[in-house]
Specification:
Blueprint lengths: L8 H23 L6 H8 L3 H4 L6 H24 L5 H18 L2 H7 L1
Helix pairs in contact: 1-2, 1-4, 1-6, 4-5
């Protein structure tokens, strides 16, 4: 029986799914999208390969989730950057500030690896 590493099973599963995605992102950035295999992600995450399938049906499904998550992170950052804008000029400044902050965090590395 696997160990539950969170107060609830729901939290444990969310943490495991997030760990799988982080491992996949690291692999993609380090070695490209082709390096994202279920076996490689399982090894990087430290869980059994069949356990990865509890979260994602395939390596392609993992990559799809990474793309979705990347766009969602960008949307949240952009929304935060323009939330208090009151003029078109502020909107443009907010957009570019969000883009600069995203680049400073290295968010573009995943997009580059998955292109």
């Amino acid at each position: 029986m696997p160990r539950i590493s969170a107060p609830t099973l729901v939290e444990h599963r969310a943490n495991q799914r997030a760990a799988v995605l982080r491992a996949a992102e690291e692999l993609a950035v380090e070695r490209g999208a082709a390096a994202v295999t279920v076996a490689a992600v399982a090894a990087r995450t430290g869980i059994a390969r069949p356990s990865v399938y509890a979260y994602f049906a395939s390596a392609d499904a993992i990559l799809e989730a990474l793309v979705h998550e990347g766009f969602e992170r960008w949307r949240v950052a952009l929304d935060a950057g323009i939330a208090t804008t009151t003029s078109p000029e502020e909107l443009v400044r907010g957009y570019f500030a969000a883009a600069a902050a995203s680049a400073a965090r290295g968010d573009h590395r995943l997009a580059g690896a998955l292109r």
